[in-house]
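Batch 3, record 17
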Amino acid sequence: MKKYNIAVVGATGMVGNMMRQVLEERNLPIENIYFMSSFRSAGTKIKFMGSEYIVEELLENSFDKPIDIALFSAGGGTSAKFSPIAASKGCVVIDNSSTWRMDAKVPLIVPEVNPEDVEWNNGIIANPNCSTTQAVVALKPLHDAYKIKRIIYTTFQAVSGAGMSGYKDLENGLKGEEPQKFSYPIAGNVIPHIDVFEESGYTKEEIKLVNETKKIMHDDSLRITATTVRVPVFNGHSESINIEFEKSYDIAELKKLLQNAPGIIVQDDPANNVYPMPITASGKDETFVGRIRRDDTVENGLNIWVVADNIRKGAATNAVQIAEELIKRWSK
Amino acid sequence: MKKYNIAVVGATGMVGNMMRQVLEERNLPIENIYFMSSFRSAGTKIKFMGSEYIVEELLENSFDKPIDIALFSAGGGTSAKFSPIAASKGCVVIDNSSTWRMDAKVPLIVPEVNPEDVEWNNGIIANPNCSTTQAVVALKPLHDAYKIKRIIYTTFQAVSGAGMSGYKDLENGLKGEEPQKFSYPIAGNVIPHIDVFEESGYTKEEIKLVNETKKIMHDDSLRITATTVRVPVFNGHSESINIEFEKSYDIAELKKLLQNAPGIIVQDDPANNVYPMPITASGKDETFVGRIRRDDTVENGLNIWVVADNIRKGAATNAVQIAEELIKRWSK
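Prediction for the assembled complex:
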């Protein structure tokens, strides 16, 4: 079997670390692996499949060596500069920042939803925002069957979504320390503010959720609104999603559709207190769906509750799955 | 000025304690005050306006003495038994349990919304569910101006809403202890489950929110759906509310309406990170409204974010305000 050279860029961050772990777990056909970071973290030692690697500094010549796939989680600025360099050398970048997501020349991919979009990449593939990824995994089978007209998202987002510094803000906040990352204490609080505010009164996080959902689902006719909220949860995003369908549905059939859809585990047995929660979803690669119930206030309405590990499915796992889609096609 | 005899029933619980505190703060014209509880807590000493009181056991003859108003926060069973006894002796009960709320003969009151309903009481007035009260304070001026067609509630509810034992579950959970009150750990988690599940898949909390909103707003034509979620916040409920109006609106005018409405403080300056949060609403009697923005996915759509202290406005303060409405009418 053909093996590939893989790089992880931003290897020492929260998502970069998880990318390394998921690459190990899923046992990709790797020939050589490279870990890269900014000057600040270069030199860090990293274990991978039993061997020790030294994190190298990301430089303009880093992609002169043959690299097939680079998983980037190094922030928008780094991606804007280095993704085109890597791509120009024949490497395919799978980028976790928001830089390329809405670029019409860049596919935005969730493998359960639109894996075929890897085929038209020009050397850069965007990994969606964490809150979008889990949502579209749950929505795609429903959209295919009943055609979604309108979506109202309300999110409960974990601090790990803001990286190591977000995580530390909750950890330290629980000991009474002042926040460093968030505008306000997150311990014992909820903050209806993720990413920066736009003129419209919506945050960029809310706008990302709206636009990325449309792009991944290939449907600009979707009407979507969102309220995104940070909650004092270490890891695992939860989403309350209200949906209006074009077509009528049978609730038992709809649940079966979700049960049979890729990447989804239905946890929906209220009588036995079975429903998705961050503490049970954290550490898993699947998207968990529950509280599935008809919303009678509109024709063909539905309420669902969707939870996933935002660092795994929301970032690292999804990026590695995209790499797998590439490899599957290259190995044919 | 005429003075009144007041009783607080369930005086040692979280809401009962706050009722006492709010009665002090708002300086009601009190002649005699009585604190009552179950056998278990009877004998407890309580300070009120500088004097010490001994909590007496709630008995069938407790209302033989002349009591004008009894603020009940003693649970459904106690209210079902003792409210009619108190009422039969000429006392007006303001009850915080869910027992009487949907009884057609019992008014359900939020003084900013339907104070006139105190006039048709038959000795029992119901205090709404905490999540309902703050919602209708925010929705009433909007309903009056633009006529609401549909409401989608998603709540972020504090552990104090589950009383002292809910509060302790978070406190102890943060130290790694197992939950006693909730079905799962609430520290570092969110639980999409408040009160018990009905056959429909909705929880009683969600159904309360729907039905009580209609009753208080005097409008059964309202279409309302809800998802209620427990979050690891000690005190202060937050609500993401999506609204569809019958009539068109101007967003600046709508904000002004809210600013001028009773009991509301608008906190809506995203550019300066000003929005309502539980840590800033806790300890206050007002309902805080922010993140006010048009939802363009439907004609005349709106998203708002509403936060209030669920023990104060959601329970104790609202009950005392109802008492004030009674006293205002009696003193004419």
